[in-house]
Amino acid sequence: MVSILKGETSVAEAARQHGLTVAEVEEWREKFLLGAENALRIHPKEEEAVKDGRARPHSITSRTSSGAS
After folding, report:
1. How many whole angstroms from its chain centre is CA 41?
2. Distant-in-sequence, close-in-space partners of 25: CB < 8 Å, separation ≥ 6
3. Is the dihedral of CA 39, 32, 27, 64 positive or negative?
């Protein structure tokens, strides 16, 4: 997946190498990118604080939404 994102391998080439369809690789690529985006939106330490009741969820939202995207 990383080689596709870096432009080192095409989606079609990766599909051929791993016996997958181009659609499967493209779907995985989209899921990977969405997962990466979501991981950057939430800071794990702050998420734990919310779960433990030490922070309010809106404090995380307001801080992350004002940052660079």
Report:
1. 9
2. 4, 11, 14, 15, 18
3. positive
In the prediction, which pLDDT does 69 show? 45
Which amino acid is located at 18 in the chain?
H
Q: Record the tokens describing residue 23, joined without a space.
A: 């659609």
Within 8 A by CB and 6+ apart from 30, the residues are: none
Walking along the chain (69 residues) 10 residues at a time, the average pLDDT comes out as 90 95 95 88 66 58 48
pLDDT for the residue 59: 47
Spans of all domains in the chain? 2-65
Token pair, residue 40, equals 């950057």
